[in-house]
Design brief:
heterotrimer; A mainly alpha; B alpha+beta; C mainly alpha; A: mainly alpha; B: alpha+beta; 5-stranded mixed barrel; 4 helices; 38% helix; 28% strand
Chain lengths: 257, 151, 57
Amino acid sequence: MTTESLNSSSRGKKWLWFHRFGSPAWVYGFASRWAMPIGVVALLLFVVGLYQGLVVAPPDYQMGDSYRIIFIHVPSAWLSMFSYFVMAVSAGIGLVWHIKVSDLVARSVAPLGAMFTFCALVTGSLWGKPTWGTYWVWDARLTSELVLLFLFIGYIALSNAIEDRRTASRASAVLALVGLINLPIIHFSVEWWNTLHQGATVTKLGRPSIDTRMLIPLLIMFFAFNFYFLSAMLYRLRCELLSQERRTQWVREIVND
Amino acid sequence: MTPKRKQRLLLIGLLLTAVSGAVALALTALNQNINLFYSPSQIAAGEAPDNTTFRLGGMVVEGSVKRSDTDLSIAFDLTDTAKVVTVRYTGILPDLFREGQGIVTTGSIQNGEFIAQQVLAKHDENYMPPEVSAALKQANADNYSTEQTAQ
Amino acid sequence: MTEFFHMGGYAFFVWTSYAVVAVLFTYQFLSSRSQHKKLIRQLGAEVEHKIRRSNKS
């Protein structure tokens, strides 16, 4: 027995639940159990949120009905950054502790993050045309969000380009960690520089400067997007686990059922 | 934690610090280029480039908008509450263009006036229904008139 | 109802952005589920192949 496993067992049972997340077979079972219920919750939230946002919420005093794009734009933008954070942190954990599951979480989050970033850019541009008068402008917020899309694409490309698994996850983890610096730049870009993009509404210190009837659908959609993200991530993680562990006993048992 | 893992963690920490430092330096160096627009005060201070196209941002001064009767040309004053620049423009304006609105315009300085090629509206971070906005305006007006009578 | 689809004149912008998000989200979700089914089938075939080969020898 190595000194390390002695250490961890002597630290007590508190750590047992945590160590389970390092076991691919256990995580596969966990994902299979939770992906569907979480997805159902997301679907219900989407239905309520869309109804509240498109039908119940009143139009804006300046932008009329075009502001309704925020109900998908803001959650997409939030998730684009959040999924990058999840991806970089789990890739980093995989890099330091060599936990396979952690690498696979990063791999399954990356395409989702790219999708959210793309959605944030497209919906933002479709909102920009009627409100600002242009689809695109190279201001700090829009440019840094575009850089985020390239970081996701770079991560996906790099982790697929290298044949050897361990080298691939190491190289792409370094890229993901270096790209973390972009997150504070995206968030604070509207404060640090003059931009066409407006400042933060909901996370503003003090009271959010948005009417309650508009804030409620925004929050519902926010939760819907997060649940969708979680469910989609678990579904993707299942695929990653199966194809990575294809030669192991637990996969054979699952496949033969 | 094994020494090897500790070393790896330390390496990542150093990497992140180094990258953040480099990016911070680069962004500080590029500061003016990252700003989307110049303010009227910067123009008054002579910071804006001469004879080239650049962006100017500010608020449309209330009551300064003069539209032409014959074509789409328009003239208005732009302020950052300190200095004022007059802007001339011919073309279609965004829906959000109005007096008191923040805008960003592309063009160049000619004879002390800003000749715009493009006008973009800047949206603020407030969202409210029309009736709330009307109520707010009413409340402001009421405050103003009570102040006036108090004086 | 027509008023709802008209979106105060912003129909193109509002509905295009909602459509892009809806299509991408649905496609992503369905594709990862069908990929899972395919993997199970594929890996099952591989395992069976191996068993048959080991039985022969």
